[in-house]
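Encode chain A's predicted structure.
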Amino acid sequence: MCTDCRRTCQACGDPCCYEDVYYPYGDDSDEPFCPGCSEERHSEPQYLSPYAGNAKARDPFTFGLEIEVEGGHDQDALKNSLLIAGWCLDGSMHEEGSLEYQTNPLTADPGTLRDLHALVDGIRPDMEQEHSGGHMHLSRTARQRASRWYWALSGLDDHQADDLNMRHMKPLENSWCRLSHGHYGSKFCAVNDEHCDTIELRTFGPWHHGTAGKLIPAITWAHTMWRYFQHHRLGTLHTTDIQAMSRTAYQAAKPGPAPLRERLAGRRREEVTA
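Encoded structure for chain A:
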């Protein structure tokens, strides 16, 4: 290859033609990957809608997660999951082994939530997740407006937001998800309105074993608010109504104490093993 055509793969060091390389951090970056190495780090999402072929479904609720994992982890468990549509490198994570996974559009069916929780609970990164996140995409309709979601997030206090794995209330962690009224069009805002088919809530932190307990409450809160917005025409909700409903949705979604039978069973096990 001539000098102008030659590129060097950042993973294996092999020379390759500029026409064959993949730039996971953008075409203007200087980190090319050869076809073989890029296949391990990139798989274009092939999204499968749970409502495909269902003509009766009108504006159904679906959600999807971006699961960013920084550093080494069990990639095969995620890549081989039917819940995962694709994966790629992410410009905010540069540690070896880091990947971002995109789920298929999912429903709030209890079985689907159990499978997703099990998948997330099995993610055991080998390092702190300082630069990773877990953005949530919600199906867009005419009544799903970014401003409505702004007021929903603003209705939660620090403790409530943390219980749902949200970071917009944490000054040291919200540089990628600032909650700012009227600013819904960049990768630095809590509510991103730039996607054609979804509303993106960028406030969520990384999803892994340590945060798996907050996953279903977070989805339940989002599902409740989504339904609330669907049931009210534009211009019929006051901001205080949305904020109050957000707190109510949090109360309904947060994990409660274990039932008495489970607490007593746990106590008996402790007595036996003491």
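The longest helix spans residues 215-230.
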